[in-house]
Design a protein that fits this description.
The chain is 4% helix and 52% strand. The chain is mainly beta.
Amino acid sequence: MQVMKWSVIALAVAAGTSQMAVASSQSESNGFIEDSSFNIFNRVLYMNRDFRNGPNGASTSANPAGYREETGLGIRLLYESGFTQGTVGVGFDAHSLTSIKIDSGRGRYGTGQFARTDDGRGDDTQTEVGGAIKFRVSDTVLKYGNQFVANPVFSTDDSRILPEVATGTLLTSNEIEGLELTAGRFTALNDQALTGRDSFGLKEINFAGASYSFTDDFSGALFASDVDDVWKKYYGNLNYNLALAEEQALNFDFNIYKTDYDKKYTGTGKSEDNTIWSLAAAYSLGAHTFTLAHQRASGDRGYDYGVDGNGTIWLANSVQYSDFNQEDEKSWQARYDLNMASYGVPGLSFMTRYIRGTAADNYTERELDIEAKYVIQEGAAKDLSFRIRNAFYRDNAQGDVNDFRLIVEYPLSVL
């Protein structure tokens, strides 16, 4: 499940606008080597899922226990070249992804960090490499190859030690200030724990969209995608920020998906549809942010995703364990964030939220999340972060789960 993506489209537009402002266009390229970067990103993840009621069918291990418990290390080597000079700039990006099993076992396997061996254990170590060639004209970039994608209708997941990887073509254009146009065609998507090319069985996905910043405080986006023999999906976003007084503001974030499912996918001999939307209102007061959100689904079935990336659910109530996206489900969220920088502890933050949802046939689910994160601000260990995520999930049908994660991340900029 995904961490809630607050104002992602707005941030993307702002980033594109900022890049234009600092003259990142092809005409001011310094060269293939001169503008290149090389980064190493390390992530350690300890994850424990306790199903509370003993062994159940959720476990995929050879000797199912009532919980899953694993620790892994993910190491990412990420190289991004600059662009050659001239009207058409050419560049190349490359990556290496390595997972190392620190702790696992046949009775505890199944947190999604490692591939499964024949005897039901997590694989000790795995490595995959990939790359993409890229071209730039003015402020438009065309990239083909292995990529990490963050798009509301096609998004690679990054909730374990390594991310999903997609293979295809992505076009991004920022020719008009405040407007970002995106189009893509991808023919493969690989799981976070596997080293192949296409573990999802993705035949083809085509998508296009635009995000636009109308003002510094108001932005919107529209996207559409077509997954061959699976579904057609449409997405919209509106985000508005209202400054009230010094250190006070209101933010409104609206997201909506409309999905038309192909009859080959539904298996019912007929097409089906789903509409799901969320509206979140956040009030910030200095170090404190208070948020209320409502999410609602309607149609013939719940909202599906996965073949288009396990990160393709940009909704307010998609949280640590559940997405609250079942058929006809209505859910509410109350959330509180605290930034301790205002109290003399920069880098330390806390968050808690509670979500309750109801769906058809008297189904109810609820989740309480509690998080704390600290990022070292200076010194040799600058940017080293420690994050604790704790989810308590309860429902009246599928069973209860306690989900605990300890995440340690250390980014290093080599070049």
